[in-house]
Amino acid sequence: MRTKNTLIMAFAAVLLAVAVYFLEIRGVEERAEVERVANRLLRFESESVTGLNIKTADTSISLQRIDSTWRITAPLDLEANESAVDSIVNRLQTTDYDRLIDETPDDLGRFGLADPEVEVTIELDDGSAHSLALGDGTPVGSNLFVRHGEGEAVYTTAAGLEDAVNKSLFDLRNRSIMTFAEQEVTRLELTTANLEASMQRQPALSDGIARWKLDDPIEARANADAIGAYLTQLRNDEALAYPSESIQDEDLSIYGLDTPQLTVRIWTNDDSTISLEIGNESEEPAGYYARRIGSGAVFVVPTALFDEAPDSITALRNRTVAEFARDRVNGIQVEIGEKTIRLTKDGIDWKIVSPRFLEGDTSTVSSLLTATLAMKAADFASGTASATRFGFSKPYARVVFNLEPLPSQDMSTDQPAETITMLIGNETQIEPTESGPTAEGDETEEPKPTVGRYITLENEPTVYVVASDDFSDITVDLFALRSKTLVSFARSDVSRIELSSGARTYTLTKDEENNWNLSGPIAGTNLTKVVDDMLWSLNYLRMESIAAEPEGNDTANLASFGLDAPAMSVRAFTGEGDVAHVSIGGEVPAEELEELPEFAPKAQTYGAVDGTPGIFRLDAKLRDALQAIFDELS
Questions:
Q1: How far apart are CA 206 and CA 549, in angstroms?
Q2: Are β-strands 287-292 and 273-282 bridged in parallel, bridged antiparallel, or unpaired?
Q3: Whose C-alpha in 118, 126, 349, 451 is 20 to 30 A from the C-alpha of 95?
Q4: Contact yes or no for 367/430 (Cβ under 8 A)
Q5: CB contact set of 139 (below 8 Å; sequence gap of 6+)
Q6: 568-574: strand order across its sheet
Q7: Alpha-carbon gap, residue 343 to 369, rounded angstroms
């Protein structure tokens, strides 16, 4: 019995909740919706509108929605400006009246509604039509008088309605100069009095780099950025005026369209073409007369559309010497003279594998890649890369980039790795560009030519002229490419240190509280501060330069650098064994430091690192930090 009562009570609770929802919550929502539309002048859903007519004293414009697209049908047959028409429909659909002024006025003239300024009619998909007449503004307040076409009642509503719906044919027409999807453009032709250029979009690869190729009047890589920018301008710019809706051939000369200054032809994926001709300059509005081939209308385009059009082959050529995705590079080879350096990528790091195995300097390799991808031609040399004057048969430098295959490429094992080979040839002079005007009385130094070199890519005919400064980070030597870090470890893992100076050797150990204490030859001295300072100098110790680096089985003359009997040395140990063993020799003579860059340490010592062949110049801070410990011990 108790279970049955419980079920009955639960069922009653559910019924109560349902009743509350429909009577209270949903009822409130429905009443709010009714109140929201109660004062609407016109009641309809915007998606049900199939036609629109705007009638003024000057004209009557009719539009029809055909397959969800608006089109002007009168007074001309034109494509409509979709957003402009939708804006009118949405404004009509959401316009409320402010007050009911007169239900049965005997004189519409006093409201300006006997011959209204604007009359708007909408047609709905059920065959019905609704209209709204807009009259004069109210004597007080920012409202205007309106009247339903279906009745005589006069209302007031916000005066902004007139500005929203009183649109001209110019406002409502599609004023796009050329309509196309930029990513579907496959070919572009530009013709002027001095230029006939044709270029094609190259197949897209998965590296995200846009590529275009000039095929007339020369074959060369095209400037994808310049082409893309001009296509965007053609697609986004709008006509400023329409001086003629139906031009006759014999009248083309009026606008300079019988011999246009610029002709643009665009091909799209479906092999359809769009052509634009630009003629004489227009004074009012400022711009140029133009027309689309196949259309009778003459319109005015913005001045920039003509002035900023690529006007030479040089402007259309790609000045970027090499284009590839840097994350595809898994190997680099730099050849300068008789010296060859090969690097390979290992995760996020770089390893030098030739002329010997060394850790690579990731920062320097990154700068090399950045400089390569940023390198721009100052000019293009006439002739092909095979010409002997460029020096590519025995280049100054040769840089090879090995690229991983793209996902869309054949990944079979017999596919050779893709490579890009850059050849840097003979020196040349780059003439300075013309400087702009200077203020009267200012003295200006005559610009001088700069030094550059000819550069090309293997299997490409183009020869680039590049300023030497632009590839200084590319033509680097082994020292620049190798890691300068001689020692690296986790400081917290170091538990024991051995220090030597002359015949004396000291052992320091770290206790559980991370304090450093002398443990040999006698125990007890706390040296935590000076040891911590020394470890900061020891960890990530970098070479400033290489003083001597014997090749093969040769050995360096240690005595020349004070390392036959080092002034001091340090060994650091972890539980795994020693992680650093550095010997400090003599001080680098001051005269050898005079030509160093400003950021280089002004005091340096010679040093050797166990496990790393060679004698290096080190920042004297390590020597000073070691000396501070010896001073404490003494």
A1: 45
A2: antiparallel
A3: 126
A4: no
A5: none
A6: 516-520, 504-510, 496-501, 568-574, 577-587, 604-609, 612-619, 543-548
A7: 13
Q: Which DSSP helix (H) or strand (E) runs through 630?
A: helix 621-633
Task: Please give the full DSSP string across 320-335, using - where no structure is assigned.
Answer: BS----GGGEEEEEEE
Torsion sign (Cα): 490, 491, 493, 494 = positive
Region 96-105: what's the mean pLDDT? 92
Tell whether the model's pLDDT for residue 408 goes beyond 60: no
CB contact at 8 A, 64 and 71: yes
Contacts of 586 (CB under 8 A, 6+ apart): 561, 562, 563, 567, 605, 606
With a CB cutoff of 8 Å and minimum separation 6, the contacts of 66 are none
Q: Tell me which amino acid residue 38 is.
A: A
Burial 39-67 (b: 16+ CB within 10 A, else e): eebbebeeeebbbbbbbbeeeebbbbbee
More confident residue, 585 or 634: 585
Residue 502 pLDDT: 86
Residue 409 has pLDDT above 60, yes or no: no
The mean pLDDT value for 13-31 works out to: 62
Cα-to-chain-centroid distance, residue 182: 18
Q: Note the pLDDT of residue 370.
A: 97
Amino acid identity, position 570: V
CA distances from residue 541 to 334, 484, 621 in whole angstroms, order as listed: 27, 8, 10
pLDDT in tens, 354-401: 999 999 999 999 999 999 999 999 999 988 888 889 999 999 999 999
- The answer to whether residues 333 and 340 touch, using CB atoms and an 8 Å cutoff, is yes
Residue 150 pLDDT > 80:
no
Task: List pLDDT tens digits, range 47-95.
Answer: 999 999 999 988 999 999 999 999 999 999 999 999 999 999 999 999 9
Q: Percent of the chain having pLDDT more than 90? A: 73
Strand, coil or helix: 40: strand
For the cut 70, the answer to whether the pLDDT of residue 2 exceeds it is: no
Instruction: Annotate 390-440 with DSSP letters as a single string.
Output: G--SS-SEEEEEEEPPPTTS---TTSPPEEEEEEEEEEEEEPPPPPPP--T
pLDDT tens digits, one per residue of 511-568: 999 999 998 777 777 899 999 999 999 999 999 999 998 776 667 788 999 999 999 9
Phi, psi of 530 (to 5 degrees): -70, -30
Placement of tokens 């494509």 in the chain: 79
Residue 383 has which token pair?
């002739």
The average pLDDT across 120-149 equals 93
Task: Identify how many contiguous H helices and E strands the chain contains and give both numbers.
Answer: 12, 35
Residue 91: its H or E element? helix 82-94
pLDDT at 413: 45
> Whats the size of the chain, residue-wise?
634
Mean pLDDT of the chain: 90
Distance, in Å, from the CA atom of 150 to the CA atom of 147, rounded to the nearest integer, reads 8
Question: Which H or E element spans position 33?
Answer: helix 26-37
DSSP secondary structure string for all residues of 366-393: HHHHHHHHH-B-SEE-SS-TT-GGG--S
**Following DSSP, what letter does each residue of 102-122 receive, concatenated?**
ESS-S-GGGGT-SS-SEEEEE
SS3 226: helix
- What kind and span of H or E run contains 274? strand 273-282
